[in-house]
């Protein structure tokens, strides 16, 4: 718009009485378009020349604000005082000085940054080093050498895990010949008698005295898991695809004999209650980290005790999350999965934040909110098809995360059976050691 056109229009407009102007209603956007000579509908934000469809919306930034050529923001649909619009030498117009905070060097006056983000935003946790800055630090510990260095409550489990890594007691005797036909050239031959087992080695006296499942169907499932592991690697699929195509069927099959006492859940939507997030050091944000799966105690006696324990309290869940499936089923094992090229450090950090928050809830239930928790919590990290077992040990001066060497990789049928055996020994530990502790310490009724 040229200056001569503006001056000609202004000469034809009668200025309103000052008193009336003070009380005049705000001009509607449609009126402004008539005054400006705009006959077409207003341009939408999505069609604006400066619109970026991939830009992240920023807090405090209205969707009805656009940037002018000089970088300042202008309210769309709010009429301008044309007397303040100046024409430039090239026929374009320049905007009047802004009445709001101006932008200088990327920050606004008053100390806040453009878009309302604080200069002191916290950095998200990406590795275990960040957790050493927490109020109660989480420390990585390489696998301990001697049995007596481990807590008493996991020593029997450790012995069973050691046997699994060596291929002892991993293959059902009736399908041994069929399984051997699926071996790769680098697989263990599974020729020793101690590679085989009878069904009831995982029986839980008093809860499940005998176990029964279809071992022929199990072999077919594990063969499919092995094939899908290779496919997921080749096709570079996403983490959710790994979960649904490989890990979920494997967990289903492994826990089939324990269906009445131990279950598993996809908990990718379960969020930590903020009261239980570990307090962090300066500049570190221990946000509500989520994990992928949990093993839980699911028998009727445990769930009944959980509900009874909650009735006199103001809490609505027995764990550290209000996710429906976990409200009355105590978590025994937590599992975080990653793709083959995913970060192991990030997976361990996620598990650490999740599990230390759970420990805070268990301390609260056990009546020892400031002391060390006298139960060890096993956790599993799965990276692609590789399974790794760690233990979270609560101490007075911090929390130790002890990680064992990788157990198995589901790219081979032998290792598929190893993972199944590992999960079943963890289920036995859950239904015996952990169940006794939580019934005696966390779910016991307390006098008020």
From TrEMBL:
InterPro entries: PDDEXK_12 (IPR046797). Residues 210-435 form the PD-(D/E)XK nuclease-like domain. Residues 91-106 have a biased composition (Low complexity). Pfam families: PDDEXK_12. Residues 38-130 are annotated as: Disordered. This is PD-(D/E)XK nuclease-like domain-containing protein. It comes from Fusarium ambrosium.
């Amino acid at each position: 718009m040229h200056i001569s056109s503006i001056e000609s229009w202004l000469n034809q407009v009668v200025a309103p009485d000052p008193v009336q102007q003070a009380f005049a209603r705000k001009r509607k956007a449609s009126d402004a378009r008539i005054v400006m000579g705009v006959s077409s509908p207003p341009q939408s934000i999505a069609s604006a020349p400066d619109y970026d469809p991939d830009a992240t919306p920023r807090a405090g930034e209205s969707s009805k604000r656009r940037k002018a050529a000089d970088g300042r923001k202008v309210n769309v649909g709010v009429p301008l005082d044309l007397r303040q619009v100046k024409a430039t030498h090239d026929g374009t117009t320049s905007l009047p000085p802004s009445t709001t905070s101006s932008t200088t060097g990327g920050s606004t006056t008053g100390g806040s940054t453009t878009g309302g983000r604080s200069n002191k935003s916290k950095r998200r946790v990406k590795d275990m080093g960040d957790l050493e800055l927490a109020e109660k630090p989480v420390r990585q510990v390489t696998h301990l050498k001697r049995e007596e260095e481990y807590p008493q409550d996991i020593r029997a489990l450790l012995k069973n895990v050691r046997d699994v890594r060596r291929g002892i007691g991993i293959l059902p005797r009736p399908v041994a010949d069929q399984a051997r036909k699926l071996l790769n050239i680098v697989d263990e031959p599974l020729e020793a008698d101690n590679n085989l087992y009878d069904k009831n080695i995982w029986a839980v006296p008093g809860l499940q005295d005998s176990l029964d499942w279809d071992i022929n169907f199990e072999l077919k499932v594990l063969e499919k898991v092995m094939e899908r592991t290779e496919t997921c690697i080749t096709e570079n699929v996403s983490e959710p695809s790994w979960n649904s195509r490989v890990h979920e069927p494997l967990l289903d099959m492994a826990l089939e004999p324990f269906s009445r006492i131990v279950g598993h859940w996809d908990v990718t939507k379960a969020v930590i209650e903020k009261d239980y997030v570990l307090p962090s050091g300066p500049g570190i944000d221990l946000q509500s980290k989520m994990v992928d799966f949990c093993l839980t105690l699911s028998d009727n006696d445990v769930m009944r005790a959980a509900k009874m324990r909650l009735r006199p309290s103001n809490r609505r869940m027995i764990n550290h999350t209000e996710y429906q499936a976990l409200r009355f089923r105590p978590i025994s094992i937590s599992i975080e999965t990653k793709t083959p090229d995913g970060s192991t450090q990030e997976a361990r950090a996620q598990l650490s934040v999740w599990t230390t928050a759970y420990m805070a809830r268990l301390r609260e239930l056990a009546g020892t909110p400031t002391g060390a928790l006298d139960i060890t919590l096993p956790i599993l990290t799965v990276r692609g098809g590789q399974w790794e077992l760690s233990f979270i040990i609560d101490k007075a001066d911090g929390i130790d995360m002890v990680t064992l060497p990788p157990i198995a990789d589901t790219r081979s049928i032998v290792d598929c059976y190893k993972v199944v055996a590992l999960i079943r020994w963890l289920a036995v530990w859950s239904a015996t050691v952990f169940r006794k502790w939580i019934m005696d310490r966390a779910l016991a009724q307390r006098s008020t």
